[in-house]
Design a protein that fits this description.
alpha/beta, 6 strands
Length: 187
């Protein structure tokens, strides 16, 4: 079975932990009090039937819910080590988040040379925000990346399906990389 390390990154208070708990079927605590992630939380789960061309239809996932506070910047290289995918979460209703996404992109995605299929942007709308589902005004390099809108009150299963599709893309990339490595050993 394939194993994927996915980093969930983005600005503070954009909803990364809520999404991580939802996508991994984890409920850490009941309540709505905001408690910022300190460093990183690692959630492990198995995702079935990813719906891609990957030979393995299941994947062991390590979802790294990374703190959005820049005081943890010194830890970022360790977090990035051996990551297979990046999910950038932001709140499109907060203008500073739109600008901050560029920093997350250059630090975590372009520096590692990840493919667009290994990345996902999630415009996460807080409950009651009246979600605008048009594509937000982002820097040009971010327009190549797939983007989904997330509102767990209104379309939770759609978010889950889109994330599974994304995991399928990551699994396909991992499978192809493993095959190339095996062929290079044989050759």
């Amino acid at each position: 079975m394939l194993k994927a390390k996915i980093l969930l990154i983005g600005p503070s208070e954009c909803g990364k932990t809520v999404l991580a708990n939802f996508l991994s079927d984890t409920v850490e605590s009941i309540g709505t009090d905001y408690s910022p992630t300190q460093g990183v939380r690692i959630l492990e789960f198995e995702s079935q039937s990813l719906g891609s061309g990957a030979k393995d239809s299941a994947c062991e996932v390590e979802l790294w819910d990374c703190a959005g506070d820049f005081k943890f910047e010194a830890c970022w290289p360790a977090l990035m080590k051996d990551s297979n995918g990046i999910v950038v979460v932001f709140n499109p209703d907060i203008p500073s988040h739109l600008k901050e996404v560029e920093t997350w992109y250059s630090t975590f995605i372009s520096s590692q040379g990840l493919l667009a299929s290994q990345c996902l942007l999630i415009a996460h709308h807080k409950p009651g925000s009246g979600a605008d589902t048009s594509r937000p005004q982002l820097a040009s390099q971010l327009n190549k990346l797939p983007l989904i809108h997330s509102n767990l009150e209104e379309d939770a299963e759609e978010v889950r399906q889109e994330f599974r599709r994304y995991l399928g893309n990551v699994a396909q990339t991992l499978s192809e990389s493993r095959e190339r490595e095996e062929m290079s050993i044989i050759a």
